[in-house]
């Protein structure tokens, strides 16, 4: 079809492109407004110790409560937020809201850590450590109750800058996790250099468990690697009892996924503690 109609196709693509650019601009404007009108909200997903079967943390997951379209997940707006720089004020809001929530849990006698996703743009901001320190101070959250989830892609370029930032964050006493571990461009050298606490095995390796032999091998290898480096290992995207049992048999320390609980409103995290699925024998 494209071959038949040379100029027509060109015009078609131009119109498409134009439309896309317009849609982006509209979304950017809406996101800016959403920030002002406080339409962002956080859901929290349980992270569970696989050995003790206890709730140890919750990952904060950003949502946009759109006045017309309802609750929108980050997949629909994160790219535009990042490209427009709006992720900086949004990310700051997320950090503050998550820390405030973790402090409230502490006060309610529910001492669990909160994990916060950090985007590349936030990380490239050299004052991230200063921001985190001031938010911890402001919310009175002890640093060990905050974990920052960083992706591999963010750590890979061997930039001294990012090494300094990681060191500064680690010195504050906050925890650091490598999110979606295994999906990045795999140079593992940063693991040797950086003070990371936790590897988070990506969902894509978990979904094929326990039957897919390659996934099983990879999950065992990642767990072994993490433990050899004295890191805790958590698996994301656990949906079934079988996946959970397999991960426990591999020695994986912690887990997160629909099997333990979907992302929930903060108030429901308390009840999630009581409603965790019973631990399965490793067998
Ligand atoms: P992520 O950090 O890897 O978060 C896990 C995603 O997997 C979440 O999607 C969660 O709802 C989903 N999930 C959890 N358990 C299961 C499961 O058992 N099965 C399946 N199929 N999915 C599961 P969500 O909330 O749509 O977030 C998508 C991504 O958006 C996150 O991936 C993270 O990279 C990013 N994100 C979320 N919140 C924030 C934020 O506050 N700031 C930044 N920068 N990024 C965020
Ligand atoms: Mg994450
Ligand atoms: Mg993840
Ligand atoms: Mg993921």
UniProtKB/TrEMBL annotation:
Instruction: Tell whether Transmembrane helix is among the UniProt keywords.
Output: yes
- Which parts of the sequence belong to the EAL domain? 24-277
Keywords recorded for this protein, A-Z: Membrane, Transmembrane, Transmembrane helix
The answer on whether this UniProt entry bears the keyword 4Fe-4S reads no
- Protein name as annotated: Uncharacterized protein
Question: Where does this protein come from, organism-wise?
Answer: Tuwongella immobilis
Highest lineage ranks of the organism?
Bacteria, Pseudomonadati, Planctomycetota, Planctomycetia, Gemmatales
Q: Complete protein: which residues are present?
A: 849 to 1131 of 1131
């Amino acid at each position: 079809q494209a071959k038949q109609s040379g100029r027509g196709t060109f015009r078609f693509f131009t119109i498409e492109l134009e439309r896309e650019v317009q849609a982006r601009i509209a979304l950017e404007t809406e996101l800016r407004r959403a920030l002002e009108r406080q339409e962002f909200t956080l859901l929290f997903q349980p992270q569970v110790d696989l050995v003790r079967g206890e709730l140890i943390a919750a990952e904060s997951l950003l949502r946009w409560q759109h006045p017309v379209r309802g609750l929108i997940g980050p997949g629909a707006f994160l790219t535009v937020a990042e490209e427009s720089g709006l992720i900086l004020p949004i990310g700051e809001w997320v950090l503050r809201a998550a820390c405030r929530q973790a402090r409230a849990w502490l006060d309610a006698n529910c001492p669990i850590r909160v994990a916060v996703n950090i985007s590349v743009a936030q990380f490239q901001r050299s004052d991230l450590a200063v921001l985190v320190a001031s938010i911890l101070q402001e919310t009175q959250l002890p640093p060990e109750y905050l974990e920052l989830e960083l992706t591999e892609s963010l750590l890979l370029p061997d930039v001294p800058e990012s090494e300094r930032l990681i060191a500064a964050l680690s010195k504050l006493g906050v925890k650091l996790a490598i999110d979606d571990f295994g999906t990045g461009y795999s140079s593992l050298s940063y693991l040797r250099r950086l003070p990371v606490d936790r590897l988070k095995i990506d969902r894509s390796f978990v979904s094929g468990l326990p039957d897919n032999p390659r996934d099983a091998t990879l999950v065992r290898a990642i767990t072994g690697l993490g433990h050899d480096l004295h890191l805790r290992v958590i698996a994301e995207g656990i949906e079934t009892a079988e996946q959970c049992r397999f991960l426990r048999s591999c020695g994986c320390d912690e887990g997160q996924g629909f099997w333990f609980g979907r992302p929930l409103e903060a108030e429901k995290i308390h009840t999630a503690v009581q409603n965790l699925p019973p631990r399965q024998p490793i067998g």
